Amino acid sequence: MKKYSLLTIFLFSALFVKAQENKAWTLQECVNYAIENNISVKQSELDVELAELGKRDAIGNFLPNVNASATNSWNTGLTQNVTTGVLQTQTTRNFSAGVTASVNLFDGLRNFKQLQRAKISKLASQYALDKMKDDITLFVADSYLQVLFNKQNLEILKMQNEVTGEQMERTEELVEAGSLPQGDLLEIQATYADEQQRIIVAQNNIRISLISLAQTLLIKDYENFDIVETGYDIFGTEILDNPVEDIVAQAREERSEIKIAEANKQIAEKDVEIAKGAYYPSVGAFFNYNTRESGQGRIVGAEPDPNDPTREIGVVESTGEIVVAPNVLTTIGSPLPFFEQLQRNDGITYGVQVSVPIFNGLATRNQVRRSQVNARRAEYELEQAELDLEANVYQAYVDAEGAFEAYEAALVAANAQEQAYEYATQRFDVGISNAFEFSQAKLRYENAQSEVLRTKYDYIFKLKVLELYFGVPVTDLKF
């Protein structure tokens, strides 16, 4: 019984996973998935992480540097015996260790300016990430609406093709009855075949647009990927009631393009201040503790040599008298214990170091000028970003207005073409018009319906672009 229960759970789990894989995606799900998985977004997130590390580096510059070292070495050959002072062939072992700490007390405020620069750089990286998310959202929305347009356009073609099929059956009956000429039937059949071909093209367009959207989302299962076939209504058009100048002003405060350019300008200005800091003296403090140990023996006793109690060490130049000194024999013992030697031989060094820049081949002055040039360049880039943003907002505003007018015109045209199609159908049914005139009226009606769909989704997309410029967050966009 337990085995059957486990099998049932496994089958239901597999069906649930399969259903999840084959689910239809909504636009919001596509946007959220793209923001979480898009490679460009991930790269921008890495830039934010690197900026955070740069900030930590700047904070670390205020902390002391502490380093420890230890060396244990052997030396073989003719060397001086450090105990007796006599040259001899020997193998000696020496150990030394030390700890050094240093801290920067003053460097022309460069560390402080570097920390400020790192904070601004992190903000710039975050603004770039926000802009990337906005761009990805619009790109996904455009691709999604294109798929939706292709799907609904296919439905229109199928419905019209069904109508054409019904009309073809009626025409065939009328031709057999002698009420209509054979040419009308041939015209209807040609129209039906042409619509079948257009349906195949529309199906291919859906497939291509779905693959394009899946690739944007980094989804590999093209075969099972699909979207929710829900029409999107037009609402929120009140943004067009705002003067375009207000939208431009709001965009300057909210858009990431301006924030990025402003941050880059501030970074360039900090670079100038950092470069000027090299003109000032730098002051640092240091502390060192060191000790040593040796494997050499030590002198444990000394007494005069009974066989040669004195030894000549020199001659008095004025009198020629020979100068002698006691000739002492030393007794060498084993070295002291390791830790005892370290304790006896330790020492410390500490102090303050001042470095005053005098001349370095104009390197500092050139760096300052180079930073000033970059600061002016960043200022021009900010001005250009403001001009580009103003032009883009005006363009988006005009595009949205034009798209809305085109949509309204398409609705009027579609209504007129529908009436013309109904009138053409009535004339064809009573034999007043021929099949060619009927087919032309029907084709114009199909094109008008397709144009309504195209202008509708074009307007929705352009309206969302304008809303982003107005400062509406990506998460608050409504479709």
Automatic annotation (TrEMBL):
The keyword Transport applies. SUPFAM superfamilies: Outer membrane efflux proteins (OEP). It is found in: Cell outer membrane. GO terms for molecular function: efflux transmembrane transporter activity; porin activity. InterPro entries: OMP_efflux, TolC-like. Keywords: Cell outer membrane, Coiled coil, Membrane, Signal, Transmembrane, Transmembrane beta strand, Transport. GO terms for cellular component: cell outer membrane; efflux pump complex. Residues 244-278 form a coiled coil. Residues 1-19 form the signal peptide. Belongs to the outer membrane factor (OMF) (TC 1.B.17) family. This is Transporter. It comes from Salegentibacter mishustinae.
